[in-house]
Amino acid sequence: MTFFSEQEHPWEQRDTERERKTAWVIFDLDGVLIRWPRHHLPNEQEQANFFAGLQSLHESGVGISVLTNRPPAAMQILAYQLGVNHGVWVTESGGSAYNVSEHKGRVLTKWIETAVTDIPHMRSFLEQSLDITGRNIPAIQFRQAQFEPGMGWVKTVIVPPEDMSPQEYYQHTLSPLWNTYPYASKFTIGIGKAIDIDPVGLSKSAGMNSLLALNDIDPHKVPTLFIADATRDIPAGTTLLAQGGFVGAVGNASPDFKEAVSSHPRGISAPTDTSYHGSVIHIVNTFLSGRNA
Predict the structure, then answer these.
(1) Do 233 and 259 form a contact (C-beta atoms < 8 A)?
(2) Which of 33, 275, 253 is nearest to 267 (CA)?
(3) What is the 3-state secondary structure (H, E, C) of 225-244?
(4) Which of 90, 120, 240, 270 could form a disulfide with 282 if both were Cys (CB 3.0 to 4.6 A apart)?
(5) How high is the mean pLDDT of the chain?
């Protein structure tokens, strides 16, 4: 995988011009396509059947993309598992992108400086202060880099000790420390399953706009669906709804996200008692059956 700026390689247009889609489904990753171990996990055959179904959906002419806060290196494995061979996926909440067909990734132009200068400095500060060198904060590399799954480009993820929730770890440990960091105003902190530290301006809402633009998707012309599960996905869903798209909430979604989706006429909510993969199937089938209505 290689870094590219937007000016150096406008590959996203070549990809989408080659293969126009009849509909497009955008997936959040954690809680939608990937299940966290503390919840009930589908068995291997169920998961294989689910991925095979998504591959068939892709082969039938429906575009598949991913919008996630995970780093792009992990997208290589996911694209292979899903059998997807086209399109641009947006990662790190809009900070970077991964071209599936060319197996290349990039940091968006305006974040390259942050990725190369400020992030390593911040990582060094956190590693020294929290004594977690090499455990939770992977080193950033540039140009001649070889990436492994889980390695980040722009964002930094801190996983708290097992005996503390991310919220507790932030309140008791990270917050007092973070206030002493001289460049803290350049970054924002998001607390979910872990503590995400991103440059100011990165968000899933901005990422949604990037994903639509990079794939040349007009939701008014191509029915487009975003399936997600978390409160932090509401801005991205709102962005898509404003452009004529649809949003789906899986059965295991947060109450806030479910409420936001259920209150919109183009929102699709899976029943709470639906199985994990069954939630996604329910939403996709409902979307496809009504997209031309």
Answers:
(1) no
(2) 253
(3) EEEECCHHHHHHHHHHHHCC
(4) 270
(5) 81
Q: How far is CA 250 from CA 33, 129, 190, 213, 243, in A?
A: 10, 38, 21, 26, 21
Mean predicted confidence (pLDDT) in 245-253: 94
pLDDT the model gives residue 144:
39
- The candidate with the shortest Cα–Cα distance to 225, out of 13, 16, 27, is 27
Residue 227's nearest CA partner among 201, 188, 253 is: 253
Q: Nearest CA to 84 among 47, 107, 108, 52?
A: 52
**Model's pTM, two decimal places?**
0.82
Dihedral angle at the C-alpha atoms of 265, 64, 106, 79, nearest 10 degrees? 140
Is the pLDDT assigned to residue 204 strictly greater than 60?
Answer: yes
What Cα–Cα distance (Å) separates residue 46 from each residue in 92, 251, 275?
28, 17, 11
Burial (CB count <10 Å: 0-12, 13-18, 19+), residue 145 = middle
Tokens of 289: 């059956």
- 63-109 tens-digit pLDDT: 999 999 887 777 888 898 889 998 999 988 888 888 898 888 888 77
User: Which pLDDT does position 163 carry in this prediction?
Assistant: 86
Cα angle 70, 74, 77; round to 5:
145
- At 190, which helix (H) or strand (E)? strand 187-191
Provide the edge-to-edge strand list for the sheet that holds 224-228. 62-66, 23-27, 224-228, 246-249, 267-269
Distances (CA, A) of 26 to 63, 193, 225, 245, 283: 8, 21, 6, 11, 12
Q: How far is it, in rounded angstroms, from Cα 23 to Cα 65?
A: 11
Return d(Cα 192, Cα 201) in angstroms, integer: 18
Q: What are 7-61's pLDDT values in tens digits? A: 433 444 444 444 678 999 999 998 888 875 544 555 677 778 888 999 999 999 9
